[in-house]
Design a protein that fits this description.
This protein is of the alpha+beta class. The protein contains 18 helices and 12 strands.
């Protein structure tokens, strides 16, 4: 096959999303970049590419797919190819090390995460396609691994942060291990793995634990029904130098446990701050479940600064001010790509400035989707009971067979009251209620109407 030639055989039809699991080589789960950086979206895209590569087969040197299918499987929620290109470049610029040993032979390979990628726009009315390669030295180990972990794309796509996505895959790997204990590594190693950054030279473990690990563990506990993770710290004297995780399989929850307000779901520290402003506990938890966490934190910071102000009148209702600020986007769309809050304490790297307006448009699309999902939730709550039952039946007929088994189980158990399944249901309801895709003009008008900064 000539260089650049794509496979002649069409790929096998994709199965339903609840069957979409990628056999991910164990060595490719806890990736510590040696150069470059990885993000949550780049990890999703990489898993989706790997899934389709495995379906097309290890004998194919070049893989091809309709771009729309990749966007759907990666939960990209955007047709912005410039943003997609930036994440593909990140993966091409990320260098990883792959070490194996056996039968007296030790082999070390330093390689790109992804090889040549091509996007082909074939003209109006014809689908855009993407072709990609893997470095030859690691292609077979990625596409046809001997030791691997099954990763569900649907569950992985539910994770809201890069550290949680990494820990989900690590948990899935060691769930079937007899000891259920993950690898034991030093704090610096874990900082690089959990943030996807290669530039970390120093770590303050207190900040790593508070701002990265604890939040990721809470996210896993909230979104993964099969297991939770427990942090294990190893000290030398009074200093914590190494850590690992124990995988704890979850027992079948009692009926209604998902509605128990005392259950440790989500980031309780953040939810607690919302309650301290005056929001009711159920309202704060619902707001957390349906709103982008970064936007919540940015708005909370804005309100806290307003409360500290000595020159402005005292706020009569911080909770009402917070909800209004969140609705109007007072926190704004930031022009930098933020690593978790630990970035200054983890290393000496400067913030990575967005190269274009692509990230801003993607952020607006996220706000637009969240707004539609919130409206769909309110719409459902206002429906008569008979109409609610009809929408639940339609959802079960149209969507239930296409979602991951753990989410489907949560739906069958708790329906829209399930924190895990509710987002999927409300997103589906928004799609069937407002099926049209927003243009860039519509998104910009939405941003202006919401008062989002930077427009």
């Amino acid at each position: 096959m000539e260089d650049g030639e794509v496979p002649r055989q069409p790929p096998k039809p994709s199965p339903a999303p609840d069957e979409q699991s990628v056999a991910k080589a164990n060595e490719a789960i806890a990736i510590r970049p040696k150069r470059g950086r990885l993000t949550l979206l780049s990890r999703r895209i990489y898993n989706a590419l790997l899934y389709h590569s495995q379906r097309q087969g290890v004998d194919e040197p070049v893989y091809k797919l309709a771009l729309s299918e990749l966007i759907g499987d990666a939960r990209f929620n955007s047709n912005n190819t410039e943003l997609l290109k930036s994440h593909l470049r990140d993966m091409q610029a990320t260098t990883i090390e792959w070490s194996t040993s056996g039968a007296g032979l030790k082999r070390w390979v330093s390689s790109q995460l992804l090889g040549t990628v091509t996007l082909e726009e074939q003209g109006r009315g014809r689908p855009c396609t993407i072709t990609w390669r893997y470095p030859e030295e690691i292609r077979e180990r990625l596409v046809k691994p001997h030791q691997y972990t099954r990763v569900l794309l649907e569950i992985s796509g539910q994770m809201r942060s890069y550290p949680a996505a990494v820990l989900y895959e690590i948990g899935a790997r060691y769930l079937s291990s007899p000891s259920r204990l993950s690898m034991r590594e030093d704090v610096l190693w874990w900082a690089a793995v959990l943030t996807g950054r290669s530039d970390i030279t120093e770590v303050d473990y207190r900040f790593l634990k508070r701002d990265v690990i604890s939040k990721a563990l809470a996210e896993i506990d909230a979104l993964c029904e099969d297991f939770s993770l427990e942090l294990i710290e190893h000290k030398r004297g009074r200093r914590i130098e190494e850590i690992q995780f124990r995988v704890l399989p979850k027992l079948q929850q009692r009926l209604g446990a998902a509605d128990d307000p005392s259950r440790n779901v989500f980031d309780l520290e953040l939810v607690g701050k919302l309650i301290a402003l005056g929001l009711k506990q159920d309202e704060a938890q619902d707001l957390y479940a349906t709103t982008d966490e970064g936007q919540l934190r940015g708005t909370l910071e804005h309100v806290e600064q307003r409360l500290r102000s000595q020159s402005l009148p005292t706020l009569k209702s911080p909770a009402a001010y917070f909800k209004d600020a969140l609705k109007k986007g007072y926190a704004g769309v930031k022009g930098t790509i933020e690593i978790p809050e630990t970035a200054p304490a983890l290393g000496h790297a400067r913030p990575v400035t967005a190269s274009s307006g692509a990230d801003r448009m993607h952020r607006i699309r996220e706000l637009w989707d969240n707004d539609r999902m919130q409206k769909a939730k309110l719409l459902y709550q206002e429906m008569p009971e008979a109409m609610q039952a009809e929408m639940r039946s339609r959802f079960e007929a149209d969507r239930l067979g296409q979602i991951a088994a753990p989410i489907a189980r949560a739906w069958r158990r708790d329906g829209p009251a399930s924190r895990i399944a509710a987002t999927t249901f409300h997103r589906w309801l928004a799609q069937v209620t407002w099926p049209e895709e927003p243009s860039d003009r519509v998104l910009l008008d939405f941003a202006l109407a919401q008062g989002v900064a930077g427009m």
